[in-house]
Specification:
homodimer, mainly alpha, disordered N terminus, disordered C terminus, DNA-binding
DNA sequence: AATCTTAAAATGGTTGACAATCTCGGGCGG
DNA sequence: CCGCCCGAGATTGTCAACCATTTTAAGATT
C-alpha cells in the first residue's frame, strides 16, 4: 500500500545546494552532514584526524544525536572510518583507487542512467542542465574551482536523478563526495573552458535523444586522461 | 597521528556471522542492523512495508537510537528509503538494475581487489577461503540456499578485504546486501555443486598468484548467464 | 460532495545520565 | 632499564523521558 509514489523517485533536491547556508526548513542533521563533509573535502579536516562527537556537537550547536548520524553517513561515503568505542577518523582516497574503482563505477552508473534518462527527460530538465552550464561559465569567470566542480557534479546528478533508477541514484550519492574531493585535487590542472564545453556537448547529445550519440559523448567526457602522473598515495 | 593501523584494514569480521545469534560483545546497534537486514532480504518485510521506529525498537528491545542508526545504514545499502518526517519504507531491486548496475559494479570491485589481493594473501587467507568452500559443500548437502549464499559472499568478502583497499571494501559493503537478495531469488535455479566448483577453481587460480589467470576465472565466475528471462521488475 | 479543521501518529531533536570500552601513563617486578 | 599490569580519564554506545515539527487521516462543516 504505502508504496513510494513515482513522484518520489525524483529524490529530494537537497544535494544541489552545497553551500553552507542550508535552508532553514531542512532537518538540522542534514546540515551537520553537509558541514562536516565540506570540512573534510575542503581539507579543513585532514586524513587521520579524529572526529570527536562532543567536539562536533559543540561546534555545530546540536546534540550528539545528529552528529552521530552525520558520522555514520560520512562513513558510508567513505570519508571517515569508525571503530566501535574508538571513534571516527578522516580517510583519504588514493588516486589509484579513484581512477581504478570510483571512476569506473561512476561510468557504469552514468552509462546506465543517461540512456534511461533519454526517454524521460523533459525540456524543463534540459533547462536545468543549461543552468548548471551557466553556473560553470560563471565559475570560470571568477576562477572559482569550488563552484565549477559543484555545477559539474550537479549536472550529472540531474541526469542520474532523471533516470528514476533508485539504486543507481543511491550509489551515486555514496561515491560522489570522493569524486568531488578528487576533482578539487586535479581539475585545477584542466582548463575551465574545456570542462564547460564538454558539458555543452553532453547536453546537446542528450537533446538528440539518440543513445549511441549520448553514450559516445559520455565515455569521451568521463574517460579523461589520467591526472599528472605525480602524486602518489595520500592515504590517511 | 591516530592513523588507522594496517591491522585495522582487515575490517571487523562481523559481516561473516549472519545468524541471529550475535556475539554479546558487538554493540546492540549492529545487531539491529543485522536483524532488520535479514528480515528484509529474507522477505519477512516486503517492499512497500513501512518501518516504524517505535515498533522496531519494541521488537528488538532497544531504544529508538540504535533503530534510527540501523535504518540509516539500511538506507545506504539500498534496502530502505526514507523521507523526512514520513518514515522509511522497504525497497525492492529490479532485476534489470541488479544486472545492469550492481553486478557490473561488483565486477569492477572484484577485478581490482583480486589482483591486489594476490600480493598480500597468506596461506592463512587461503585456508579461510577453503573454509568457505567447505561451508558451501555443507550447504549443498543440506540443500540450504541461505548458507550457500552466505558462504559464497563470505568467500568474496575475504578476498576483497585482503586487498586492503579501503574504499573498495566500503563500496562492497553497501552493495552486497542487494546482491544477496538477488541471489536468493535466482541462485535457486543453479546447481549447488556448480557454485562450489566455481569457487574451487577461483581459489586455485588465486593460489597461482598469476593476475591473468585470476582475472580470467573471476570474469568467468561473475559473468554468469542472465537469469531465467522471466521475472520482470518487482519494484516496490 | 468538497473543503477545512483537528487530533493522532511518527519522526527529528534535546537533555542528562550511565554503562562499556579504549587509551595512556605511572608504578611494579624482573 | 624494560616490559607488564592497572587504574583514571576520555569517548563512544545506549537508555529514558520529553518536546517540537510534520504528516496523515478522520471528522466536522458548509
Amino acid at each position: 500500500m504505502t508504496t513510494p509514489t513515482p513522484s518520489d523517485l525524483r529524490l529530494a533536491p537537497e544535494t544541489t545546494a552545497i553551500a553552507e547556508a542550508g535552508a532553514k526548513t531542512t532537518p538540522r542533521g542534514k546540515q551537520v552532514i553537509e558541514a562536516v563533509r565540506t570540512a573534510i573535502i575542503s581539507g579543513r579536516f585532514e586524513p587521520g584526524d579524529r572526529l570527536i562527537e562532543s567536539a562536533l556537537s559543540a561546534e555545530f550547536g546540536t546534540s550528539r544525536g545528529p552528529v552521530r548520524e552525520a558520522l555514520r553517513q560520512l562513513e558510508n561515503e567513505g570519508l571517515v572510518m569508525s571503530f566501535p568505542y574508538r571513534g571516527a577518523v578522516v580517510l583519504g582516497v588514493s588516486d589509484e583507487e579513484v581512477q581504478e574503482v570510483l571512476i569506473p563505477i561512476r561510468l557504469t552508473l552514468e552509462r546506465y542512467s543517461f540512456v534511461r534518462a533519454i526517454a524521460t527527460m523533459t525540456d524543463d530538465d534540459f533547462a536545468e542542465l543549461g543552468k548548471q552550464i551557466w553556473l560553470m561559465e560563471q565559475a570560470g569567470k571568477q576562477n572559482d574551482l569550488i563552484k565549477l566542480v559543484e555545477a559539474d557534479l550537479g549536472f550529472h546528478e540531474i541526469v542520474i536523478s532523471a533516470s528514476g533508477q533508485l539504486h543507481t541514484v543511491q550509489i551515486w550519492r555514496t561515491i560522489w563526495p570522493r569524486i568531488r574531493a578528487y576533482f578539487y585535487r586535479y581539475e585545477r590542472a584542466r582548463s575551465f573552458e574545456a570542462t564547460v564545453e564538454e558539458h555543452r556537448v553532453l547536453l546537446a547529445a542528450l537533446q538528440t535523444r539518440d543513445p549511441a550519440i549520448v553514450l559516445a559523448e559520455l565515455e569521451r567526457h568521463i574517460d579523461v586522461p589520467a591526472p599528472p602522473a605525480a602524486a602518489k598515495v595520500r592515504r590517511a
